[in-house]
Design brief:
4 helices, three-stranded antiparallel beta sheet, about 190 residues, Hypothetical protein yqbg, five-stranded antiparallel beta sheet, 2 domains
Length: about 190
């Protein structure tokens, strides 16, 4: 199984204006590039394949590849699932074929999104082709406005911490992880078994 991002999110969950207000830096532009960097870093910490949440925040397009169809439903990583664009596969003649959407169902209501085969199961794919099956889908909460407030607040807290403490070690200051940030993120963490 392989996962590749096709289209990055159009925006970050938090705007520069929101972050500047949180950092009390809205009256000047000197630190705009720095605050933008912090927004991107905090978002990357949470979002996408490498993010600690195992979720997509703002809508983004992903390709999931399999060498062959699995025995049952295909679980789509990085919930929430917004939609499935297509399911393509190399058929038994090694011809790239788009599966008719009537041949599968899409479950976007579960905590994790699934593509479920029809009653007849998945078609046969060409056995000698690597990444013979490709599901392209949109994952995320939609636009930045739809990202849960707790996740946006956690990003703002991380940005504020980065902005206020620009060094990894400050002499005479105790370093502690933000309990508030952890509490905000906890309900959204994806547990992997």
């Amino acid at each position: 199984m392989g996962l590749v991002r096709v289209t990055a999110p159009a925006t970050t969950p938090v705007t520069l204006a929101e972050a500047k207000k949180h950092c009390r830096a809205e009256d000047f532009t000197d630190d705009d590039v720095l605050i933008t960097l912090y927004i991107e870093a905090a978002t990357a910490y949470l979002d996408g394949e490498e993010g600690v949440l195992g979720k997509a925040l703002v809508n983004q397009v992903w390709d999931l590849f399999w060498d062959e169809f699995p025995d049952g439903p295909i679980e789509l990583p990085l919930p929430p699932l917004s939609s499935v664009n297509f399911v393509k596969y190399y058929d038994s003649d090694n011809v790239l074929t788009t599966l008719d959407p009537n041949e599968y169902a899409v479950d976007i209501r579960s905590g994790v999104g699934y593509v479920v085969p029809s009653v007849d199961g998945w078609p046969a794919s060409y056995a000698d082709t690597i990444n013979a099956v490709n599901v392209r889908y949109v994952a995320g909460y939609g636009t930045a406005e739809n990202v849960p407030a707790a996740l946006k607040a956690a990003i703002l807290l991380m940005v504020g911490d980065l902005y206020a403490t620009r060094e990894t070690v400050v002499v005479g200051q105790a370093i502690a992880e933000s309990r508030t940030t952890e509490l905000l993120l906890r309900p959204y963490r994806r547990m992997f078994v």
